[in-house]
Amino acid sequence: MEITYSKLRHQVLVQASGRHIHLTEESFKRLFPTEYKYGLFTLKPLVIDGEYATNLHVEAMKDGKRMLFTVMYPLRSYDQIEWSETDARYFKKPAVLRHSGDLKDAPFITVRGDSIQDSTAVRAIIAEPHIHIDANHPLVEGLTDKGGHLTFIGEKGLMELSNIGIKVNSLPESGAVFHIDTDTYNGLHNTLGEYTLYMTLESGYKDMRTCLEASLAIGQAPQETEQLENLVLH
């Protein structure tokens, strides 16, 4: 059977997803009662339109040391901490790798906000690598949420990631951004050296795949997409 691959070239912004927490309105109100009542918090826009990091943090204590998690906005329908495997080991908790919202059997971490009297237990996950892609990006049409596969090829070695999540959002200049946890980001940056990102995303078309080939440029804004030739495999 003949399978056609549509090949595009695009630079993808890669970001390390630091420690943060998503809260429900109920949890936000309990942990930050004054800030909730009077709106005493600021919002820092993120790359994804409508997503923000606040100036608020919750803290979790371990052996007399505290670990801070940035509170994200807008509020969600579930509480969720996102951290790294290193953080999980420090707290002697299972390192659970999941897509956002999949919290079954994830470990609980007790956190406090500004309210000294109140704390809440929140499940913690290591977020699966995922790409946010603008609704007007050339690759969006026909994409499904079944995930993709990444191969990082560098001067010093090779690293592969699978089960990549795909989220269609609103991004500046119809771009795309790839989010990974801090351990994975540091591993790529420190171990592989110069490397190229190859991403394969399933499309909704039968016997078709969409291939995103991108030069990884950490910290740089996405570049224009360039249409390359189609590849036909028999």
What does this structure look like?
This protein is mostly beta strands. The chain folds into 2 domains: 3-15 and 129-233, Barwin-like endoglucanases (Beta Barrel), CATH 2.40.40; 18-127, no CATH class. Helix content is 13%, strand content 49%. It is built from 4 helices and 18 strands. The strands form 2 sheets. Strands 1, 2, 11, 12, 13, 14, 15, 16, 17 and 18 form a 10-stranded mixed sheet that branches. Strands 3, 4, 5, 6, 7, 8, 9 and 10 form an 8-stranded mixed sheet that branches. A hairpin with a 2-residue loop joins strand 5 (52-62) and strand 6. The longest helix is centred in the last third of the chain and has 11 residues, at 182-192. The radius of gyration is 20 Å and the shape is globular.
Task: Outline the secondary-structure elements.
Layout: E1 3-9, E2 13-17, E3 20-22, H1 25-31, H2 33-38, E4 43-45, E5 52-62, E6 65-73, E7 80-82, H3 85-90, E8 97-98, E9 108-112, E10 119-127, E11 130-134, E12 143-154, E13 158-169, E14 176-181, H4 182-192, E15 195-203, E16 208-215, E17 226-227, E18 231-233
Parallel strand pairs: 1-16, 2-14, 3-6, 7-10, 8-10, 11-13
Antiparallel strand pairs: 1-17, 1-18, 3-7, 4-5, 5-6, 9-10, 11-14, 12-13, 12-15, 15-16
